Amino acid sequence: FDAGRQTEASDTAALLTVDELADYLQVPAKTIYAWRHKNSGPPGFRVGRYLRFRASDVESWLAELVIAERE
Predict the structure, then answer these.
(1) Using CA atoms, how far apart are residues 20 and 27, in angstroms rounded to an integer?
(2) Which pLDDT score, from 0 to 100, does residue 65 have?
């Protein structure tokens, strides 16, 4: 996932796989699944049997973490 190469319009529609999200966040894919199980990670959804994450949702989730960290 390269956030810098996408346009603003496509960024809001960009869908990430579990592996792409794990690479972006620099965590193991198992961590993504664990967060999902605990309802503590970025919001995701199923497309058929595949789990996907909107890039815009991931960025919002990260911003919330930063705000919570500062409080």
Answers:
(1) 10
(2) 93
Q: Checking phi first, is residue 50 left (phi over 0); if not, alpha (psi -120 to 50) or beta?
A: beta
Tokens 């919002």 belong to residue: 60
The reported pTM is 0.79
Q: Are the C-beta atoms of 41 and 54 separated by less than 8 Å? A: no
The pLDDT tens digits for 15-35 are: 999 999 999 999 999 999 999
Return the C-alpha torsion angle 40, 55, 17, 50, nearest 10: 80
Residue 7 phi/psi, 5-degree rounding, is -80, 165
* pLDDT at residue 69 tops 80: yes
Rounded to whole angstroms, the Cα distance separating 50 from 47 reads 5
| SS3 of residue 2 by DSSP | coil
- Six-digit token string for 7: 């346009």
